[in-house]
Every structure is written in C-alpha cells, then in structure tokens.
Design a protein that fits this description.
globular, two-stranded parallel ribbon, about 40% helix, Rossmann fold
Length: about 280
C-alpha cells in the first residue's frame, strides 16, 4: 500500500517513521508543511491523486491548547479545514483515512471511562475544532476511522515527560495538578496500533486509544521523577491553583474495548510504556 502520513515531524509522525521501518512492505510518504500544506485544498487533492495514495493517516494538528484560545482561526484551519480537505481527497481516490483526535472532545464531567458512543461536549477551542474535524471526515469519507487519544508523549518533540524531567532537575520543588485524571499515551504504542489498523483494513468508525491504567498528572510526574532518579519535591495542586487559558477535562479516561476487539490489539500499561520511553530519553543524554 501507499500510505500518506501528514504531520510527520511531530511526536506521532516521528513514531510512525519508526514503525514504518519495520513495515517495509508498504510505501510510506511522510509529509509536513514543506512537503504538503494540508491547509491548501487544491494541493491536498493533487497530491493524493498524483501519488495514488491508498491510506492517509492525519497526524497534523494544532495542539497548543492554551494558545488556541487566542488563535482560533489558525487552530480551525489545521484541526477542522485540513481534515476536511484530506477526507474529500481520500473519497475522490477511494482511499481510507485515519483521523487522529483527542479526549478534549469531551467535557470531562464523567465518572467512568468514555466510550465511543458518549456525546462529545468540547469546552475549549482546541477540543471544539478537533470535534469539527471528526464530523467533517466522517461526513465526507466513507472509509474513515477516527482515533481519539489522550496525554500523548514521546522521545520526540516537546511534551509533559520532557518538561517534568527538565523542571525536576532545575528546581527543588514543583507543583503538579492532581485533580485531573486520565491516561498517558506513548506515541510509539499509538503508531503500532495505527499500522495494525492499516494492515487489517481500516474499519470505519470512532475508536479510543490510550495506554492501559489511570492516573493524575501528579501521579504521572511522580513516576517520571522516580524512573529518572530525580529528587525534586512534588506538591499536589488543585486545578484552581493552576489556572490555564483553556479548560482541561477533569476526567478523560478512554474506554479501549472497541479498538482492542476490532483489531486484536494488546495495549501496554502506561507505566511499562513510560519506562520504555524513559530508557530511550536517558540513554540519549
């Protein structure tokens, strides 16, 4: 198959490069802004047609959650308009599309893991534009799968794991929110799952993917520091003690039953995957 991966220089895009190296039976075309501007409708249609793409994995997104509140136009272009163009191009060429989405489409007021049937109710510009992208791709592309994920991190790019490592080494004490609950997702595991979906044939629908288990941001930070031997003193903070521009879901644990059953995927626990990522980061220092 000929597979187009957009947003190839981001966390997930780079992890897709790693997994692609073990799936050499496919031709993977990795693009970012310099190779393909996904906000250019004509360029997207031309590229997908000329390159005879079979599957598109859209990893491109505007992910600066707080900045999005003041930069709504650009956020919407990347998170809603670009997926619209990719979906239309895929449909025109008979290609499948995997649109990567987010737990931010939910308001975070639940008390149990969110399933794919729960009604989205985004409370931020980021979440709203990602949900608009979900609706567009499902409307326009008959072979479309939406994969929602949460708390993404990797050895590539900037993320919570790297920030906690840096701050933990720079400071004697650090406050981290403890009343926002979810599940970290190692982008390498998500990349493996996306290739499994491609290999088995993209079954249309919405799917949830994160690692297994549940924690708070405070628990996540504490585990990062423990694995790295960082001795910074962590203090649990209420969300009210750490105000941000954008609303964060207080509870955004995702139920992964559907993706596991549909594609036979086994998902590692978040601590096991964090250990793997931390080994990579610490060995590269």
């Amino acid at each position: 198959m000929r597979i187009l991966i957009t947003g190839a220089n981001g966390q997930l895009g780079n992890e897709m490069r790693v997994v692609a190296a073990a799936n050499m039976q496919h031709t993977c075309l990795f693009t970012d802004i310099h190779e393909l501007d996904v906000c250019d409708e004509a360029a997207v249609a031309r590229y997908v047609s000329n390159e005879q793409i079979d599957v598109i994995v859209n990893c491109a997104a505007y992910t600066a959650v707080d900045k999005a509140e003041d930069d709504e136009a650009l956020c919407r272009r990347l998170n809603a308009d670009a997926p619209t163009y990719l979906a239309a191009a895929a449909e025109a060429c008979g290609a499948a599309l995997i649109q990567v989405s987010t737990d931010y489409v939910f308001d975070g007021t639940s008390y149990r893991p969110y399933t794919e049937n729960d009604a989205p109710n985004p409370r931020s510009v980021y979440g709203t534009t990602k949900f608009e992208g979900e609706e567009a791709v499902q409307r326009l592309c008959s072979r479309c799968a939406v994969v929602r994920t949460s708390w993404l991190y990797s050895s590539f790019g900037n993320n919570f794991v790297k920030t906690m490592l840096r701050l933990g080494r720079e400071r004697d004490a650090l406050g981290v929110v403890f009343d926002q609950i979810g599940t970290p997702t190692y982008a390498g595991d998500l990349a493996v799952a996306l290739f499994a979906m491609i290999e088995q044939g993209v079954t249309p629908g919405i799917y949830h993917f994160s690692n297994e288990g549940v924690c708070s941001w405070y628990d996540f930070a504490h585990t990062i520091h423990r694995m790295a031997g960082v001795t910074c003193r962590l203090t649990p903070l209420h969300t009210a003690d750490y105000p941000t521009r954008a609303h964060r879901p207080h509870y955004s644990v995702l139920d992964k039953t559907k993706i596991k059953h549909t594609f036979g995927i086994t998902i590692p626990h978040w601590e096991d995957s964090l250990k793997h990522c931390m080994d990579i980061l610490l060995n590269n220092e």
